[in-house]
Design goal:
With about 325 residues, the chain is α/β, with parallel strands linked by helices. It is built from twelve helices and eight strands. The protein is about 45% helix and about 15% strand. The strands form two sheets. It has a four-stranded parallel β-sheet, sandwiched between helices. A four-stranded parallel β-sheet has the order 6-5-7-8, sandwiched between helices.
Length: about 325
């Protein structure tokens, strides 16, 4: 008699991105209409989201033109899903579903596919290693509101900023680069997407998790004696957490340092890495006189990262409960 293989669906969450220049404005509207991003009640949030998406459309379209007129993120997440499914298939009857927060395929579309698959257990797995109410929290809340009355059990991987496999994979990628550099000649910048200070002040653990993650990675790198955490992608007039990546690039230039940049909060290439880090910040570095500007790739489908994600899924299933830091778990209960 054959052994029963547990039927598992893994929902792989990411931000998403427009699949054409015409999709830029509705994508931006979906983003800014999220109450996790703008906390105003409706109709004011809806009106403000309409205004911001109209005003930012042309600028955002110019960014996506540099990437061929569309975001690559869905294709890349699909590759990650395929690799993760291949790993998990050794133990489970499994399907991995990419689910985008602000553009297709969104939670309502994916939920229909999961219903057809009819799993026993659903594992919610964010491609945001560090928890924030604006990323993991927002995606989970949308999904959990839609999946009510389903027969399956949902298990949540809340964050994995301190997971040994995830940390080791970053060290592997960074260490390969640092072997060719002389200690003291460069500064390593762990660059993460920024957040307004008021979100952190309200108890969001994101900044702390970013800093803990960077410290854990740096602690295992033998050829590293100069590193800092910084934050990119600031928009609007509010005070944001810092220091900014741009400030740290200029500071390194003033101190005669080469720069190695690690996108510590991004595991898939998209506009913040391919344009902001690779083009805009590189230009700032070159104008400031930086000799070498090296950007470490996002983890993508690197085998050590896929293995780390698979281990997180297996751990959640074996424990039969959510896994992650306690403060983040409480945010979505």
């Amino acid at each position: 008699m054959s052994e029963h293989r547990q039927r598992i669906a893994v929902i792989l969450f990411n931000l998403g991105g427009p699949d054409s220049l015409q999709a830029v404005r509705p994508f931006l509207f979906n983003l800014f209409n999220d109450p996790a991003i703008i906390g105003l009640p409706n109709p004011w949030r809806w009106l403000l989201a309409q205004l911001i998406s109209r005003r930012r459309e042309k600028t955002a379209q110019a960014i996506y033109r540099q990437m061929g007129g569309r975001s690559p993120i869905l294709d890349l997440v699909r590759e990650q899903a395929t690799a993760l499914q291949a790993d998990l298939t050794r133990d489970f009857d499994v399907r991995v579903f990419p689910c985008m927060r602000y553009w297709h395929p969104r939670a309502t579309e994916i939920l229909e596919n999961v219903d057809r698959f009819d799993p026993e257990t659903v594992v919610l797995l964010p491609l945001y290693p560090q928890f924030s109410t604006t990323t993991t929290g927002s995606s989970f809340r949308e999904w959990l509101a839609l999946e009510k009355d389903r027969r399956w059990k949902s298990l949540k991987v809340i964050s994995y900023h301190d997971d040994e496999g995830f940390i080791a994979c970053h060290r592997e990628m960074i260490g390969a680069c640092l072997r060719d550099l002389s200690p003291g000649s460069f500064r390593l910048l762990f660059s993460a997407h920024g957040l307004p200070e008021k979100i952190i002040a309200a108890g969001d653990p994101y900044q702390r998790q970013i800093e803990e993650c960077a410290a854990a990675i740096a602690a295992g790198l033998t050829n590293l004696d100069d590193w800092r955490v910084c934050y990119q992608s600031r928009v609007g007039p509010m005070r944001w957490i810092g220091p900014s990546t741009e400030e740290e690039i200029r500071r390194a230039a003033e101190e005669g340092k080469d720069i190695v940049v690690v996108p510590i909060a991004f595991v898939s290439e998209h506009s913040e890495t391919l344009v902001e880090l690779d083009v805009e910040y590189r230009e700032i570095a070159e104008a400031a006189g930086v000799g070498r500007y090296i950007r470490i790739p996002a983890l993508g489908t690197r085998p050590c990262f896929i293995a780390a994600l698979a281990a997180l899924v297996r751990r959640a299933i074996a424990a039969g409960q959510d896994i992650g830091t306690d403060d983040a778990i409480m945010e979505i209960r």
